[in-house]
Design the sequence.
């Protein structure tokens, strides 16, 4: 648990210092729409594409994000807000707010413009998620949130990108309401940058 307290404290400190030092450089706002399927498997299995997906627990997410600070020409930091609507085995809304770090430089970007993002923040479920209660024995409305994403775009249509996401709600080893674990999902979507 001490590890997670430290991680969240670092994110809050980083957010504060980045906002204070933000440059006036304009960046694009992006909208993403993606569909996902939940799994009761671990984050490790989900990241390795070994998770058993439960297609009775789908959801659709609308994302609005904005990069606001260039760490270097390869990496920028932004914020993102999400609204997810769950269907099937559970029927609630999920609201997520997070800080996102995005790496934008890959050797093949002249052919397929690729980015990798990792994000961390908070997730609020309007009802206690049934899958989380069934698989982990406990959950809470407010939990930690992690995001891992790759985007792929053709250079001539760089405002449009295919998005592949890992969506993770977690008690952060008991930091949030004593919850250990929670849920993971794999999703695919389409993103448009303005």
Sequence:
């Amino acid at each position: 648990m001490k590890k997670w307290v430290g991680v969240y404290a670092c994110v809050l400190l980083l957010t504060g210092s980045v906002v204070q030092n933000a440059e006036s450089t304009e960046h694009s706002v992006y909208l993403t729409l993606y569909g996902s399927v939940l799994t009761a498997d671990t984050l490790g299995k989900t990241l390795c594409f070994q998770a058993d997906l439960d297609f009775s627990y789908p959801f659709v997410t609308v994302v609005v994000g904005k990069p606001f600070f260039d760490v270097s020409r390869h990496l920028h930091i932004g914020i993102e807000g999400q609204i997810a609507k769950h269907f099937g085995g559970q029927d609630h809304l999920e609201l997520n707010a997070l800080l996102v770090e995005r790496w934008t430089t890959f050797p093949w970007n002249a052919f397929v413009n690729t980015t990798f993002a990792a994000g961390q923040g908070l997730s609020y479920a309007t009802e206690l998620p049934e899958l989380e209660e069934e698989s982990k024995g406990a959950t809470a409305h407010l939990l930690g949130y992690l995001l891992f994403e790759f985007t792929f775009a053709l250079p001539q249509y760089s405002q449009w990108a295919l998005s592949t996401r890992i969506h993770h709600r977690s008690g952060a080893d008991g930091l949030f309401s004593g919850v250990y674990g929670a849920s993971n999902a794999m999703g695919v979507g389409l993103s448009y940058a303005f």
